[in-house]
Amino acid sequence: xxxxxxxxxxxxxxxxxxxxxxxxxxxxxxxxxxxxxxxxxxxxxxxxxxxxxxxxxxxxxxxxxxxxxxxxxxxxxxxxxxxxxxxxxxxxxxxxxxxxxxxxxxxxxxxxxxxxxxxxxxxxxxxxxxxxxxxxxxxxxxxxxxxxxxxxxxxxxxxxxxxxxxxxxxxxxxxxxxxxxxxxxxxxxxxxxxxxxxxxxxxxxxxxxxxxxxxxxxxxxxxxxxxxxxxxxxxxx
Length: 237
Ligand SMILES: [Fe+2]
Ligand SMILES: [Fe+2]
What we know:
By secondary structure, the chain is mostly helical. Helices cover 65% and strands 0% of the residues. The protein has a single domain (12-225), classed as Ferritin, core subunit, four-helix bundle (Ferritin, Up-down Bundle). Helix 2 (20-51) runs antiparallel to helix 3 (55-81) and helix 5 (134-162) packs antiparallel against helix 6. One fe (ii) ion (FE2) binds next to helix 4 and helix 5. One fe (ii) ion is lined by residues 37, 68, 71, 121, 147.
């Protein structure tokens, strides 16, 4: 059976026997998630357990760290089924995202990052939930409730921090430092990779549309809900 752009692919075997462009595009997404979920868990989520201010916060931070490591495990398992060499799913071969180049030192930083970074991940996973490659779609469906929980975790603890005297200024400082780092997350406008993802139905939206959606959701939280400000829009190239 030949695979045309837009048709569903139900198994890894089918993908491996299908068009090279489709397979390579799926590989890129799987590798990127496998690398970045692991790297992010190491530099943000696991250290956050030590920074958490109470047993309750530590417990939930452990859950977040466990789930981020779990996302790596799921994506690398799928990568293995797609016969991707394990070393291609490591930072030796693939540079982690620039959003992780932040020296995490405080609980406030972690909670704000869970809003700013994981909201972007929710938007990415939303696109994969309708992916034509069914194993990736299933993986996205399992991952989505956990990514939404990470954003909610960030919102709940940040709201607690905002009740303290220095809270609003502390949160604003992290937003000012971290939000501009999210600019690169959605990729360049008119990206060739994104065009191929949409051609095969792996993703539904352009990088620009996702960045705009992200900017709107973040504005809703930071400006409308928290009464703080945003340093600049990530939707403006
Ligand atoms: Fe994740
Ligand atoms: Fe997450």
